[in-house]
Amino acid sequence: MSLYTVARDDFTNARRSYIVLGVVGILTAMVALIVAMDADHHPDPYRALFDVSFFLFLTFPIVIAPLTYLSIAGDRDTGVLKYALGLPNTRAEYVFGKLVSRLGVALAAVVVAMAVAFVVAVPLYENAPSVERFAKFTGVTLLFAFSFVGVYVAFSAVTESRSRAMLGVFGAYFFLVPFWFGFFPTVNLPNLVSMAGDLLGVTVSESTQDVIRALSPATAYLSATEIVYTGVVDQYDQVAMNFTYEGSPLDRQLWFNLAVMAAWGVGSLLVGFLSFRRSELG
Questions:
Q1: Which controlled-vocabulary keywords does the entry list (predicted)?
Q2: Which residues of 143-175 are buried (b: 16+ CB within 10 A; e: fewer)?
Q3: What does the DSSP 8-state code read for residue 48?
Q4: What is the rounded distance in angstroms from the CA atom of residue 282 to the CA atom of residue 280?
Q5: The whole model's pTM is what?
Q6: Residues near 207 by beta carbon (within 8 Å), at least 6 away in sequence
Q7: What are the helix (H) ranges across the chain?
């Protein structure tokens, strides 16, 4: 057997799951609904993508959690893991095969959702949807999906039970999205950074806060979607408010935001694999 065999078998089993159908169905329905509803308020489909990006920023990591958190922990809990590794599979082939399988489903969900959204936009909007803008949006969202799938599969690799894997995954979501971004009114990362600066007698500048905030894969995703609105940022006030700025701060650079998302996916998975490689499976 091999990484390909592990991924193929896991994908075959996963695609028959109601969870997989639910992930693809919910994501497609919600994205299509947002695009359809925005047609009553805006003539340009790319304005709907702005609203879709905030929907995905908040909910996509939650939607794909059931798809990923049991990828390895579920096999360990049921004893299937011993059988899988009893075959001629290395632990690396097993872990990365699981990643390829679950990531494949998540990426397929994104592609299907955006393809349906494009089809929905064609007859509804005054101005025709741009294939290029939809393609750029889809590409950035695919990398966003990779970042969280990597984090979640890593949690599944380091935990020994379903309940711990579930708590770890949902804890990662709340830490990386609402806490890091600053949605919680008092206890959030920006406030903690400011508090730490006050205790040390230093002032944390707004630009430093922005860079720290951008180190979350979710925040990096929102910033990276700026590439979708090249040449039309000033057409809508809400888009301009989020992407118009002076100078070229690091957190607004496309390469930086893409690197942040890639680093979370690759880095967390490597940490998870190293822990899994040393763990006792008995």
A1: Membrane, Transmembrane, Transmembrane helix
A2: bbbbbbbbbbbbbbbbbeebebbbebbbebbee
A3: H
A4: 6
A5: 0.92
A6: 249
A7: 3-14, 18-38, 45-63, 65-68, 73-78, 80-86, 91-124, 131-158, 162-174, 180-181, 189-200, 206-214, 217-224, 237-243, 254-278
